[in-house]
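Project outcomes to date are best conveyed with an example. Our students and postdoctoral researchers have been running inverse folding experiments weekly, and each run begins with a structure described purely in tokens. The record below, which covers 393 residues, was selected by the lab manager from last quarter's runs and is presented without edits.
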């Protein structure tokens, strides 16, 4: 039996974190191409540092003339992202940052393994393993430490952008150590919050006075106590933030993007990749399946693993682990999830309606545990497979 009494820690980073700036730009480029053509191919990577953004990778549209036109929009897309995030620093400003576009057309050798031929199903865009996870410990069926670490930073971003807290800057990190008793989250032993601030005169105590009310309103009642340790801007001043303080790269926050270390993660990052890339789409499908298994009452916790080979349409394996909490066997769950959903790359995209410009919104505060949007965003968070799963077992 797994441990029931312990403390587990997860972290999150804000939309202004250097790596998240890069994720945002990469996903904005992806959305722009998908808005033009639902079957667009995009594998976009971004690097950011002081006064500099470099964008590279592969893109593809069926219309070569339109591809050329869209290449000319990349700089504008990057500047719009930086502006919305809120960067107007001397050495990282949306108007003056130098943007270099090194995107080029997708390799024909990659495309030939992915595109469907007359008598061949569309293959996966790469080999790899993908994991999805769900647990009953929060209403969103997410691990509590990562879910509430995200929630704190989203709340601080809201009050920063609304003007309610103008002293806060875009760059921030949070970390929660959550106490578990009998396997359930019951409190927080420590809160770590580091946030950029625009007034150099502010001390760590001043910043805590600003952020503490928002942290308290975000966490469940009773989770903070007199014994909770607080570390707010523990190194002191934090005025220089974002890519001016540290270089950023797309795809460097994969544990923040998923389950905060509470569950396995496959080898790939998400942002900047179109949904033919199973690194992204199959990881979303695995979360969708795990969440529906838990929502159906089949288990308290569930991990689903899928594996693929480049150019091969069907998953090579489906694995389920309910950590001893299952009300049906793991083998039965493995069989059921393969029955209720077509897990080929095209099947995943069609089932979850993924060929839409819905990815920029995923770039910060987690790809999972979010509310499904009316336009199809976060479709993998739906629990509409519950009845089908129950019937399959």
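After processing, the design step wrote out the following sequence:
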């Amino acid at each position: 039996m797994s441990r029931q009494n312990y403390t587990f820690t997860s972290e999150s980073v804000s939309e202004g974190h250097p790596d998240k700036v890069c994720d945002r730009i990469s996903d904005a480029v992806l959305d722009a191409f998908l808005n033009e053509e639902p079957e667009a191919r995009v594998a976009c990577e971004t690097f950011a540092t002081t006064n500099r953004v470099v964008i590279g990778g592969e893109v593809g549209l069926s219309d070569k003339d339109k591809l050329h036109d869209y290449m000319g929009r990349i700089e504008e897309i990057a500047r719009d992202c930086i502006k919305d995030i809120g960067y107007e620093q001397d050495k990282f400003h949306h108007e003056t940052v130098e943007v270099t576009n090194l995107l080029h057309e997708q390799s024909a050798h990659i495309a030939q393994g992915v595109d469907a031929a007359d008598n061949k199903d569309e293959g996966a865009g790469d080999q790899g393993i993908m994991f999805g996870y769900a647990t009953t410990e929060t209403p969103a069926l997410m691990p509590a430490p990562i879910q509430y670490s995200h929630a704190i930073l989203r709340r601080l971003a809201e009050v920063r952008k609304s003007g309610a807290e103008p002293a806060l800057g875009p760059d921030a990190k949070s970390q929660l150590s959550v106490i578990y008793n009998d396997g359930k989250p019951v409190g927080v032993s420590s809160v770590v919050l580091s946030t950029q601030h625009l007034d150099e005169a502010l001390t760590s105590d001043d910043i805590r006075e600003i952020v503490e009310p928002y942290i308290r309103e975000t966490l469940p009642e009773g989770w903070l106590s007199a014994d909770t340790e607080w570390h707010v801007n523990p190194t002191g001043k934090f005025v220089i933030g974002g890519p001016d303080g540290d270089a950023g790269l797309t795809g460097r926050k994969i544990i923040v993007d998923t389950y905060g270390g509470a569950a396995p993660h496959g080898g790939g990052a998400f942002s900047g990749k179109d949904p033919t890339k199973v690194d992204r789409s199959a990881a979303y499908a695995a979360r969708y399946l795990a969440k529906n298994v838990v929502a159906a009452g089949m288990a308290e916790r569930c991990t689903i693993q899928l594996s693929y080979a480049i150019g091969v349409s069907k998953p090579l394996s489906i694995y389920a682990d309910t950590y001893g909490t299952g009300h049906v066997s793991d083998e039965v769950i493995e069989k059921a999830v393969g029955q209720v959903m077509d897990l080929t790359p095209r099947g995943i995209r069609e089932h979850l309606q993924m060929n839409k410009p819905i990815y920029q919104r995923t770039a910060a505060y987690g790809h999972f545990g979010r509310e499904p949007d009316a336009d199809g965003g976060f479709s993998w968070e739906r629990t509409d497979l519950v009845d089908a799963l129950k019937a399959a077992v």
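The mean pLDDT is 94. DSSP finds eleven helices and 13 strands in the chain. The training component of this project remains on track.
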